[in-house]
Amino acid sequence: MNGNLIFLRRIVLALLMAGVAGCACADKAVLRGTGDLGVIIERAAGSVQVVETAGQSMLARVEGLGNLSHASVVYSRDERFAYVFGRDGGLSKVDILRGELVKRVEQSGNSIGGAISQDGRLVAVGNYEPGGVKVFDSNSLELVADIPAEYGDGGELSKVIGLVDAPGQRFVFSLWDAGEIWVADMQNPGKPVITKFTDIGSFPYDGLITPDGRHYIAGLFGEDGLVLLDLWNLDAGVRRIMPGYGRGEEKLPVYKMPHLEGWAAAGDMMLLPAIGRHEVLIVDQRNWQEAGRIAVHGQPVFVMARPDGRQVWVNFAFPDNDTVQIIDVPSRRIVKTIKPGKAVLHMEFTPRGEHVWISVRDEDRVDVYDTASFSRLATLPADKPSGIFFTSRAHKIGL
Amino acid sequence: MHKHWHRPKHRLGFLTVLLAGFMTVQAAAAEEHSIPAERQQELIHLLVQDCGSCHGLTLEGGLGPPLLASLMADKPQAWLRQVILDGIPGTAMPPWRPILSEDEVGWLVSAMQKGVSNER
User: Fold this and answer.
1) pLDDT band, residue B33 (cuts 50/70/90)
2) Which CATH superfamily, name and number, covers B2-114?
3) What is the value of ipTM here, to two decimals?
């Protein structure tokens, strides 16, 4: 009797497994697009989750991507391949349709992030060690160009930050140690033409490009202010904006460097994190003058505009990183403060902004919030999640 | 900014560092027992995850220099404690005094010098 029961169970199990296998085969044959897909970085495990935002679920986990602390992602223009930039200098190309690692190159000792060119053919990586930019063929990941960030007389190499793509097949980036902004024209990929802007200010920590691809802005860590470069008129050089926004007051400690990549532009106003001040700065893009500032809960890290620009979501550096605040842009007021959990690292909006996905590192979760009601709609388990990147980035300048 | 890291004697007299370093070796041994095990876990988590946001998740370096045990072992403890507690003005290294006690920093310095396996 007992033996029969075990036998029966085995048959049922075998049938179930056959069924599952059959489903998997069928799934592979089903055509699908990638516009509702994205990637979540699992920073400690060295893996990424491929997720879909329509049903809010994980489709695949891709492993073996190395050290992914501070990892970021850009997408191929067909939104099929994710290029993952790891801290350990690894550049990985992931097929998100198949859920597979296609290729991985260890291109430096220590890198910070990257960009994909206007025509989608080149992927550039900004490196800390050795300082500079390396440019790869986006198809083969073969090295196309090496741009060491040499500065000063001694041939020292600077760490590179704030690397973005710009119209005209250009990459723009800043040199942390040197205080310079470089524009690399990649029309002839093997022979980049570099235009350098020196003495721009002390310790540029990140850069952004406006959605129209015209203005590159670098934030300064070493002094109060930001640096603006008009990419339509390089001859005009760089100009300082919001100088002395700290009003000479002593800076508060900054336990995590803010990011400008999540720039927030809403109408004519641009919202940016202050450095060493618990404030979000408002810049009027018509004249690049300060148009106000909003006191917030802590040192802002990401200041992200909902795609319609009506709301801006802000997360914070340690030790205030359990909190997210939502600014209503027209009234410039904080309309909601939420506590998603310990160590909120990143936020990503769905393409049209009805939802936002928030990674909560220390609680091993990614939460999905409704941006109208601020209620939590779903939770996905994830292993120490950090960056979240949806494929809608594929068609945005600078992302 | 990198350079200062390798030249503590520019910030403190060499002799002072040597003496202070000698004294704190003994102090650190005592502190090890004064930090509760649970707090030790939190401190390691902080080191890996939050120091790691600049120094790298495996402390291999990033915007800040690497903090690997092989590089930390011969650094004077007093200097390391001072750097963590008060930061390095003019660089991105912030003061941790508002967050951590002196005993906790002492314990962290010892832990760093011994080497921390990558916490998961």
Assistant:
1) low
2) Cytochrome c-like domain (1.10.760.10)
3) 0.79
